[in-house]
Predict the structure.
Amino acid sequence: MCRWLAYSGDEIFLDELLFKPENSLVEQSLHATEAKVATNGDGFGVGWYGQKTVPGLYREIMPAWNDCNLQHLATQIRSSHFFAHVRASTGTATSRANCHPFAYNNWMGMHNGQVGGYELFRRSLESHITDEHYAKRMGTTDSEALFYMLFNFGLEQDPLKAIRKMVETVTNLQHKYDIKEAFRCTMAITDGDRLYCLRHSSDRFAPSLYWRNQDGRLVVVSEPLTDDHTDWNKVPESHILIADKSHVQEIISL
């Protein structure tokens, strides 16, 4: 399992969320409290929107807590819309291509969780990725496969419909292959303006996901960034949070 955060709001330096809070994302890479494992040291990534419509990416296989380049970049890069992710591998290789977030044109996505039995029906799952998008697939994770599947299901026209179709497709394939392991997922998708955050599981153990909006700053996180959880709201299981810029428009059932 991994830990991630998505931010939208006033332009801030990345280190304000990655390093400064008492339970910052980098702190969670060492001491996660609501995950299967406490350490998320199999690489990390940040993706941010700046002067261009396409996001910038910095991904590395080193643990987030041990990369001085991340510290330097986070104190210099300002963004009003960015993703960050620390990885705990569920079986695929520790490589830069397998680090999140993933990006295609102006879209960006990241994932926490696991597609149970993925190795048994990977070929069938990947058949739902178009040739155009499969050519951009660099890694081997189920997470990246889910991201590129969304484009085939109409992400650019109707993101909500695409997310629902992705979940339905994974669930149907697990049934077809008689997979007993769960499909557990939190996922963030953005086009640089609108944000879609999914929390779902086929069993009763969906990965944790919280959100907070303070002073026009929206943060969606795997775990609260503060020891005091009073201001943090849980995203309900099998729901999708939809935000435009920093404004949460609705949280709807999957």
About this structure: Residues 46 and 84 are 4 Å apart (CA to CA).
